[in-house]
Amino acid sequence: MYKIILGLLLLGSTLFAKVTDVEVTPQFIKNTKLKIIDIRTESEWAMAGVIKDAYLLTFFDERGNYDIEVFIENINKIVEKNEQFAIICYVGSRTHMVANLLGKKNNYNVVNLKGGMDKLIKQGFKPTFHSLSISQK
Predict the structure, then answer these.
(1) How many other C-beta atoms are found inside a 10 Å radius of the C-beta of residue 49?
(2) Homologous superfamily, domain 2-122
(3) Could you tell me which residues come within 8 angstroms of residue 122 by beta carbon, excluding any fewer than 6 positions away?
(4) The overall pTM is greater than 0.90
(5) What letter would DSSP give residue 113?
(6) Which end of the chain is more exposed for a tag (fewer CB within 10 A), N or C?
(7) CA pseudo-torsion sign 11, 76, 117, 17
(8) First CA to last CA across the chain, in angstroms?
(9) What is the DSSP annotation of the chain?
């Protein structure tokens, strides 16, 4: 039910979009100055590794539940409201939805890293597997 409501909210909130879609590449990760927020679950971080210096902030828990208010509260600890930042998940489907929620509904300036960690790893990116606890730096 909550996912349906979230979907309807996303559909009706396209006027003030600040969402940029970027195909993720190892070169983008190496050269970007943007803060990157990894919204995958802790088990996914442990399984596939993470981008060095990424902020680890789960959106959906292992059961698919989420708390938008807590997530936005945590986002605000990482970025300024007008600061552009990027989000990544495993294949890009969650970041597509969350980027729209953040950019179109809440007016954040967010970059959706399309293809996610799966694409990065297939392109030869070497993730890190240390310090996998949730970090807010």
Answers:
(1) 18
(2) Rhodanese-like domain (3.40.250.10)
(3) none
(4) no
(5) E
(6) N
(7) positive
(8) 34
(9) -HHHHHHHHHHT--TT--EEEEE--HHHHHH--SEEEE-S-HHHHHHH-B-TT-EE--SS-TTS---HHHHHHHHHHHS-TT-EEEEE-SSSHHHHHHHHIIIIIT--EEEEEETHHHHHHHTT---B-S--S----
Closest among 66, 121, 63, 111 to 86, alpha carbons compared: 111
What the block records as the tokens of 20 is 């940029």
Domain boundaries, the chain: 2-122
The token duo for 77 is 């600890």
* DSSP at 50: B
Give pLDDT tens digits for 2-47: 454 445 444 444 445 599 999 999 999 999 999 999 999 999 999 9
**Cβ distance 78 to 86 under 8 Å?**
no
